[in-house]
Each structure stands twice: as structure tokens, then as C-alpha cells.
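Friendly challenge for the regulars: who can give me the C-alpha cells for this chain first? No prize, just bragging rights.
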Amino acid sequence: MSVAPHLQLPPTDRVLSSRTGWTRAHWEATADRMLDALTPYATPGFAQYRLPGRGSWSGVVLDGLEGFARSFLLAACRIAGAGGAVDPALTERYAAGLAAGTDPGSGEAWPRLTDCSQQMVEAASIAVALHETRPWIWDRLDAGVQERVVDWFSGFVGGRTWDNNWRLFQVVSEQFLASVGAPHSRSDIEGGLDRIEDWYVGDGWYTDGDGRNFDYYIGWAMHLYPLLWARIAGPDDDGGRAAVYRERLSRFLEDYPHFFGADGAPVHQGRSLAYRFASLAPVWMGALADCTPLAPGLTRRLASGTLRHFAERGVPDERGLLTLGWYDTFLPSTQPYSGPASPYWASKGFLGLLLPADHPVWTARELPLPVEESDTYAALPAPGWLLHGTRHDGIVRLVNHGSDHNPPAPGADSPDADPDRGAGEDDPHYAKLAYSTATAPESAPHALARNIDNQLTLIAPDGTPSRRRRIHPVSCEGRVASSWSAARLPGDERGYRIGTTSVLHGPWEIRVHRVDSPEGAVVREGGHAVAGPTSPFASSGPDWALARTADGLTSAVVALYGWDGGADGAAVARDVESNAYGPHSAVPYLRSAPRPGGRSVQVSLVVLSRDSVHPEVLRTAVRVRVDGDAVVLTFLDGSRVEVGPS
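First reply, four minutes later:
Bragging rights claimed.
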């Protein structure tokens, strides 16, 4: 696959970068193209960039501010990384935008900062960009403009933010005020930094606010902003906090390369995925803060592989713009707060340009990703995830037994507490049993109603599927993880417990389900959704189903025990315009006969592979024995796993 010619990249260097061919020059050229492409959409004073696309719920002015702030972060990486030796028009545009944006009479002024306002998010990007470009922009601003900028930022002082990663926007912005001698609140800064301590759960992982909110925000927000704050504060004013943040980021990065496939794709999980290669922010910050456990050649190989992955798939597009989606525009995977300039938080993925050109991350030879060297397994107990990658096809899969993006259950300590009380609707980017670097969940409204892919559901007699809302982790160690959730059916107030244990073996995931159900309900389980430009091939038998894309990506599910669905026990569900990976998608699934009610055990084998897959043969690959509360799995190589209650 080749990079779109409109990027006008330099020749690849297969000596320095044997795996991606990309060098610092490729990064600079990509940044320049993205920045140049914005200029036709600037307001006359360059204070806003009003890009084409669906507007956010914040309105056109805030969307325009977002375009300025997020692209300013990209410009800052380019300007500071080049020591100011860039086209003068670039610095002039952003200096002019600062003047117009803070001038109430300009006709394009930014709204004042108010409690919990979207402009707080954008102000943090401006603060970081101003700090990094201080000699070339801030120090050269007219004193009156500096005063107006300070006045605009002062809306943070004593202000209230949402109680999650937003606390850090206040921290970095007020630290910038402190750095220029402006009034600020030390208690705001210390309070925000103290608050994130409540969300640190160990092994380098935070949750983004209360609950189990694990996704890329941990890397591009919870780890990033504290160390950006430390860069502004300086070593004499960080109170020893920076050393703690460096240690945590170092631990986080030990596992982080396992999230990326051999083709550079990140695992497709969590919200705000339109930020795309912002997922590289913690990798670059590890090098910037001199706390990374990754070798320089691995840092660049990971980062360049991901940026190239998107460039090969039309990101940025032929206009040089980032759209609301993953590859192409795909609105079902976005949030209502995302506007046409929201994807420019991808600018965080260019932080590596702040490193000098002679830094080892730019001069060392590339090293392979973990999945390029061997089959990989990683258990992450903090978020409740298993990661497994297969060297022969480069795919990484994430098995989810811990992240649900819901607040803690009120009264959770009570044995009679409703486990779903206070939970929101199940989000397809959090509620699924598995995700991968090669697939996306079905996320259009019509697909959500069916709720098939990577779910174990109860189907009511009227055809309504249950939902997986709050996930309750049980264990995560080695190659085994388990959790439970409460399934609810329409007209039935009871929550029916579904306990699931995932066991990894080679490229396979074996799922052991213990299901409580009412009389007449049907149990259904779906595998990974595969998608592409043409309709996937589909095939099924009495106890297996398979879907395969034109380029050979295969998803299959195989019944191993307890399904008893007969001739209707397996099938493939098709859909259109419901998947970020392509307009045509398909999901293989298993379906039981109506249950008599009570407890049942279902065991299935789930496959996602670029190999040839023969589901009929896979039935013989695992022997299943149910012995009371224990389920014993025996594999062809003689290995044996006993799965207790979940």
C-alpha cells in the first residue's frame, strides 16, 4: 500500500528505517501539509479555522476556536522543533490569530472562559503551544496583545472544570500564567494535580475520572498533561511531582507497544478515535521527559509505523484535512462534542518534533515491534485487559474485562445493590468483549439495536437483546481474564448474571460463559465484525459461522459446548454503513435454542486471523469437560486450563 501522492513526501530511507522507511523529514512534510491545508478555512484575522464537516454541539465559533487551538499545537511542534527556522508565514498566522482572538472588536473573538466550557479544553492547547514557542511567538507579541491573552486565560482562575482529564487543562493553563508573571491560583494547580492521584490505579494506569474509564485518554491526557505542566513549571517548581509522573509513564510504556499491530494500526477501542495518531503522545512524551523504557529505534518505529498506517489509508485526505472518522469520514464512531476541527488533537502525535534532529529517536535504526518478533501476550490487571498478537499476520487483539466508561455503582458495597444502577447506555467502543487492530465495532444506530458483534446477550421472546453495561472485573492474569455483568430484558426488572472467562491459546480466544436466564430466552454470541469496500464472504454450519473480507481477514466463531442451537445455531449477520473500517460488514454468531431458565454453560472459540480458517476442524482443537462449577479445557498440545466460576 502506498502513501497518497498529495502528501509530497521525501524518498524513503530503508537503511535508517528498515521497517517503515520514514524519517524526521517525513514527519515534517506531513505536518507542513496539514498546516498549509488549513489556511483556506481561516477567518480574516486567523483567530478561527472553520473547517467543513458536521458541527459540534458547541456551535460554529467554538468549532472555529478549536481549529485554531489544536492546529496551533501542531504548529508549535513544527516551529519549536526547527528552532524557529520555518516559513515565517506560519508563526505570523498564529501570532495574528492570538491578537484577533483576544480582541473583542475583531469580529472573530474567542468566547470568555467560563466554568466547564469547551474553551477550557482549547485554552490548554494554546497554553502548551505558547510555552513551546515562547521565543518565536509570545516574546514577540505586542504588550497589549500579551495582556489580552493573559486576561482571556484568567477565566480559569478559581473556575470549575469537569471532574476528569479536564482538571489538567486548568493546571497547565494556570501554570502558563504563572510562567509569565500573571495572576493565577496555586490552589487550582495543586488541587488538580492532587485530584488525579485519586484516579491512579497502579502499573502506570489511571482511570479518566471516577469509574473504570480506560482508553487512549490515559496516554494522550492523563500521562501527557502532568509532564507538559512539568515542562512549563521547570524543575525548581514541580515539588517533586515530575519524578512520580515520569516513573508512572515509564511503567505504562512497558506494555504500550503491545497495543499496535505490525501494520502500525492502534487497537480500535475507546472514545474520540478521530484523534487517531494522538495515540502516539505518550510514546513521544516518554522520550521528551527522558523516562521511556523503549529503545530509541523502537520509539520511532512505533510512531512512524502508525503515522504511515494512516497516511497509506488517506489520512489526511486529498485536501490535506483530517475528517471525523478513522480512515474516511464515519460519524457513528464520533461523539456529539466532536466538531470538524476536533480531529486535530492528532497534533499531539507530533510531539516528537520537539526533540532535536540529532536525538537518538531520530538517528537510531528502527527496531521491530513486539508483534513483529513473536506471538505476544500481555495481561493488564489494572484496566482488566488481555492483549495478544500473532506474528504471522501482525494482528493485535484486546480482550475486555474491565473498561466500561460508566461511573461507580452507587451503594456497590451492599449485597443487594443493583449492579447497573447509575450506568449509562452501553457504548460499542467500551462494552464489547474484544477489540483489535484490524476491526472496529459495529456502531451505527441500526447495528447497535441488534448488538451482535463481540457480545454475549440474552434475546427476549420479542427479539430484543440484552445489553452489557457495567463490567465487574474478577481476575486478569497470564492468559486468562474474567468478569461478570448483569443482563436486562424489557419488562423484566431482574438483572440476569452473565459471567465470562476468556482463555488465550495461540491465535484463539476461548470464552467460557456461565449464564443465568429466564425461561424462553435465547443466548447469542457474536465474533469480531469484519468490514471492507465489498460485502464479505459468509459461510456457516450447525455449530460454526465465518465471515471473510476480500483481502483475507477472517472472523469465525465455533461452538464448543452447551449451545444446542441445531440447524439455526450459527449464522452471519450483514450490515452496511455501520463500521469504521468499511461500508460493508459482517459478523459471525452462535445462537442457542430457547433456554428452560436457570444456569447454563456455553463455551465458544473465537478467531480473528489472516490465515485460512477451517471451523469444522477447530472444533477438535479444544476438548471441553464440565465438572460441577469447573470447566476444563484441554488443547491439542496437551496443555490444560481449569476455569472456575466467574
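The longest strand covers residues 492-505. The chain has a mean pLDDT of 95. Your move, everyone else.
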